[in-house]
Structures are given as C-alpha cells and as structure tokens.
Write a structure and sequence with these properties.
four-stranded antiparallel sheet; alpha/beta; Rossmann fold; single chain; 2 domains; about 30% helix; 13 strands; Alpha-Beta Plaits
Length: about 240
C-alpha cells in the first residue's frame, strides 16, 4: 500500500473506533478536519443502517457540510448547550494529551464545543504524536480580533514568539474565520510549559482563543498501520 494510502486508512480506522462510542439519542459535537470527515462518514452510515437517533453541533462550515452530506441531523448549542461527547481531530498531541489545534481555522468553536461536552474524543493518525508540542517548527494558531491585530502581534513577540498573519490561498489578504476574525500562527519552538503559554496568550487583550488545548482530551484514537492505539487521560 502506498504511504499516502496508509495514512488515509489509519485515519479511517481511528474515526471508526471513535464513532463506535456514540450511543442512540446522543447530541454530540462534530469537529473539523480530514480525519473528522471519516468520522462523519462512519456516523452517517450508522444512522442509515442502525437507525440511531443522533444530532451534531458542527464546529465550522466544513463540519456543517460534512453533516448535511452524510445525512446527519444538525442542531446548535442554543438548543443543546450540554453535549454527550465531541469528536475532533488534532494537529499535534503530546504524551500528556495536550494538543495544538486550529490549522483548519476553527479553533475557537472547536474549543467551545469541547468545553460543552462531557467527553472529548480525538481522532488522528500516528504522525500527529510528538514528544513536545511545537516540534518540527509547528506554530500555535491564535484567533485575533482584527482591531487588535498589531498590538497582539507585538505582545506575542514579547513572549518570545514569531507571529505570522495567516493568509489564504486563492484570496488576497488574511484568512477570515467563521467568526469574522484573523488568525496569527505563532512560532515558539519547543513548548516546555504549554499551560503557562496558554495563560499568557489568553491574557492579551484582543486574543479571542488559542490553539493550545490543555487537559481537554479524554480519549485519543491514534490510527496506525496495524490498528488503532487508544490513549486515555490520567485523572
């Protein structure tokens, strides 16, 4: 099997395992990203074949379209402010299950939905596991109020980061999130204390949310070439 096919199959395996945790009658959060696309496909299949009654709160327009295209009923946090669980992807995850998310631009809604959920299930392939967040020069996405873009940029530099305003492909200018904000990709190198960095970034006026997800994942399904590794948070 070609390497790219191995990765896609690993994603599908992880998504399948996570979707098996969904029970009839639940309202769940549906995250964003390529691995979550497989989860939506698997959930849509269960709805058709098993006739389970499930509704999802999408975290982005991409997640909304995934739900619609797979025949999954959609609801909102206004109607269902407490969710049984959420299924989402990840960009990097360390051995403590701390994560960097947000390369798809939906970090704020993803974190809100995760916080509203009793359980956060993460699906990923083996490439997303790292010893320390920030490896391989991976940035921390930060959603920023446009009015505060320049002051926030300077504050990030004071914290030792290298901030770069994310620009879109196929359009001129910054990426605009589903919330109407901009995204800064901040490079900090290896992040030895992600909890402390999260606090410092969140204290900057104008920062809406960061892509550091600390102590949020309950269970992580890592798709590998020969199966799925399940990681659980230690209480």
């Amino acid at each position: 099997m070609r390497p790219e096919n191995l990765v896609e199959e690993a994603k599908r395996k992880a998504a399948r395992e996570a979707v098996r945790q969904i029970e009839d009658g639940q309202v769940i959060g549906l995250g964003s990203g390529s691995t979550v696309a497989y989860a939506a496909e698997e959930l849509g299949g269960r709805i058709k074949t098993e006739k389970i009654r499930v509704k999802v709160v999408p975290t982005s327009y991409q997640a909304l379209m995934l739900a619609i295209n797979n025949g999954i009923p959609v609801t909102s946090l206004d109607e269902n402010p407490r969710l049984s669980l959420a299924i989402d992807g990840v960009d990097q995850i360390d051995c403590h299950l701390n994560m960097i998310k947000g390369m798809g631009g939906a970090l704020t809604r993803e974190k809100i939905v995760a916080s509203a959920s009793e359980r956060l299930l993460i699906v990923a392939d083996w490439r997303k596991r790292v010893k320390t967040l920030g490896e391989n020069n991976h940035p921390v996405p930060i959603e920023v109020l446009p009015f505060a873009l320049k002051p926030v940029t300077l504050k990030i530099m004071e914290l030792g980061g290298k901030p770069i305003i994310r620009e879109g492909g196929g359009k001129v200018g910054p990426v605009v999130t589903d919330n109407g904000n901009f995204i800064i990709d901040a490079y900090f190198g290896l992040i030895s204390d992600p909890e402390s960095l999260e606090r410092k970034l969140k204290s900057i006026p104008g920062v809406i949310e960061t892509g550091l997800f600390i102590d949020m994942a309950e269970t992580v399904y890592i798709g590998e070439a020969d199966g799925v590794k399940v990681l659980r948070r230690k209480n």
